Protein: amidase
Amino acid sequence: MGTPGTPTTTAARLAAATASTGLSAAELGVARMYDIPHTSGCAGTAGTLREVEVLVKDLQRVGGETTGFGSPAHEEVADEHDSTVRSLLATGASLVGASVTAEYGATVYTEPDLVGGGPGPVNPVDPRMTTGGSSSGAAVAVARGIVDIAHANDGGGSIRVPAAAVGLPGLKPAHRVFGSGAASRALPNPAAQGFIARDLTLTARAYDLASTTPVRPGLRLGMSTVPFHGDPGQAGPTAVDPRIATATTASAALLVTHPQVSGVVPVDAPYPVERFAVFSRIMAARCAGLPDPLGPMPGWLKEQGRALAASDIEDAAASLRVLPGDIERAWPEVDVVVTPTLACAPPPVGAFSSLALAGSHRLDFLAQTAWTPWATLWNLTGWAALSVPLVAAAPGQWPVSVHLGAVGDRVDAATLLALGAHLQDAVARMIGSGDADASWFTVAEPGNIESLRYRPVVAGHTHGHSHDH
Structure:
């Protein structure tokens, strides 16, 4: 893989990128390189990623290597591979290093400076823009050509958000939210393991899916540009950049040109905004045991988790168990729901973290939710979802991404990839024929999170600050 004439190893690509950009390895998405690559050790391993060099997200334990969990304060040398790493090795991949991540994967932005970790990944589209999180190192390393495929995981959009932030596709596969047997009594797990890859074809290879798949006839689409998630204290749904809403609406129309798609209908949010508290409680509960010292948001989430009563967690888990059925009943006539991936272009670095640093942790959480108010539904249900950029990224031109989310098991990940490929081809044909301009599908400046109206409204006015309780 790779472009002819470019270095073939990750180490060589990293060295070339460092020399050409003047950026550090961390700014290019790489937390550390391993002295010796890790492989399965089995001669002739025939996995789908055989001999492909892959970066591992710096939340996983690779035997004999340092794992930092997004902060120098938590660095430790692993005694053995964890289960995710063993699964990666079974694909035949060669694990050559670790990618930068948000601390404990707890935020949709990645700013290691907050915890003394030096600079974070720099967005190749526009260095002013955040790279999202928490798998931002993986996304940036792929976007910069350091690797073609990087391991990532997604517990609230952490594959799809950073992929969209740098103009790449991002697939969250279907996954189990609840375990089986004794494991079924454990905390629900909204996170799926996966990859970020250079394009849809490589994404299919990473997940061992057919790069082309037939789409069954009569596929039904739903479409919404109204945010699903927010805070009950807000006056109404948070806002969406009109350019992104327009591009998403156009995308739904273009998807109907697929010969197997029967039509598209508008859909409403499948549950009241109060239901989103389920996710915030489960996330806080999963952070309750994080070790100190912690940065601003992981520390706040830990406090929130430790303050939850056992009954709060049990109620949230019970609500989560019935959520998929509730959504399927709310959306009985659609197989795939089309929404934006992000409510505005990636905002400036520091836009979110400045809130937490000022003591407004809850506002930080609400701002992150307002920026990504759709993706988490597919973590809560475990259903497959794909973020796909409408055009190729170019310096200074951030490409709008749309989100294709499966409803139940009515379609699979391979079908989402096929729809994503059709959409990209349809947009390219429109631009090539002169019927559209690429600028219709791009944004040239960082997003403004204040335009998303995420601040709660109380007694007729908007809170400017929130010191959380």
Summary: The radius of gyration is 21 Å. The domain at 10-462 is CATH 3.90.1300.10 (Amidase signature (AS) enzymes). Confidence is low (pLDDT under 50) at residues 460-469. The chain has 13 helices and 17 strands.
